[in-house]
Amino acid sequence: MNIELAKEIDARWNSRTKPLGSLGRLEDLARDYCLIREETVPKLERLGLYLYAADHGITEEGISLYPKEVTRQMLANFEVGGAAVNVLARQHGVNVQIIDAGVGIGTRNFAREPAMTPVECDAHLAAGRADAREASSKFDLVGIGEMGIGNTSSAAAMLAAITGRSGSEVAGRGTGLDAQGVRHKAQVIDLAIEHHKLSRAPAKQVLQTVGGFEIARMTGFLMEAHRLKLPVMLDGFITGAAALAAVRMEPQTRGVVFFSHRSAERAHGLLLEELDGDPLLDLGMRLGEGSGAVLGMHLVVCAMRLYLEMASFESAQVSRSDS
């Protein structure tokens, strides 16, 4: 952390017409945004959301209520602006960038073979880094979101493998599985980790073996975002799995990440603990798409408006407390 910059930010906050610290986490949000940008008064005008979609071969194991064709159908829905995230993005002035990371192609079934080859994994990581470079030229704050039938299984398997947890600890309802479906999902994850000898394996190996094309691309995006000083708002469980891989591969990545909300997906709390993440909201959401990220970005905008536009005690001729 730049100590001198932090002092300048705090001094500005403390000179505004309010009791010290009275805006709570909003003050922290603005402070963190400024520190990432490495500016005392950075601009925050252009908001973007990168929404990644891809198919997953693990759907062959019956781990989802929906067929993988739904991913393509939802991609079309995003493109015409009919999904929940489109509605929220319009409300909050967020420009949605839709990225087809592997719809119709998809990963292989990781219950039987690695989800992707090393070459494919590297290519998607590199594509994500390129996305971040593009985003940095267009936006001041970016969210990431995803869509992919089967991707909660990939994210859960990544969390289990990287941290040494069991399938029963990480498997959740996803698109709405019942208890029996969740148990089956956990068993598939356990067997895959055992088959590939992935328990506590390096993050890149885990990503390649049980991850998804969209997860790999978000991982690359996050790692490049740190180099670019680009603040990124995560959505929920799937984007968190990408962040976990990115932080394990390049620890400095953690410094540019905001956590929008605590998902209702079962293992998101465990993932947040691994990343020392304190989410802004807890609304019982588990939709994905970047829906939580858009709401989180709105809070950062509110925080920065307060930080930049509130009058000081001196300019407003308001007396300070004597204490």
Structure overview:
By secondary structure, this protein is an alpha/beta fold. It folds into two domains: 3-41 and 308-316, no CATH class; 47-303, 3-Layer(aba) Sandwich (Rossmann fold). The protein contains 14 helices and five strands. It has a five-stranded parallel beta sheet with strand order 2-1-3-4-5, sandwiched between helices. α11 (237-249) links the parallel β4 and β5. α4 (84-92) runs parallel beside α13 (291-309) and α9 (203-210) packs antiparallel against α11. The longest helix is centred in the middle third of the chain and has 21 residues, at 118-138.
Keywords, separated by commas or semicolons:
single chain, 323 residues, alpha/beta, Rossmann fold, 52% helix
Give the CATH architecture of the largest domain. Answer: 3-Layer(aba) Sandwich
CATH fourth-tier homologous superfamily of the largest domain: Nicotinate-nucleotide-dimethylbenzimidazole phosphoribosyltransferase (CobT), large domain
- Fraction of residues in H or I helices: 40-55%
Mean pLDDT metric: 96
Give the end-to-end Cα distance, rounded to a whole number of Å.
Answer: 29 Å
Tally the beta strands. Answer: 5
Tally of discrete structural domains:
2
Oligomer: single chain
Structural class: alpha/beta
Tell me the Rg in angstroms: 20 Å
Shape: elongated
CATH fold node name of the largest domain? Rossmann fold
Strand order of the largest sheet: 2-1-3-4-5
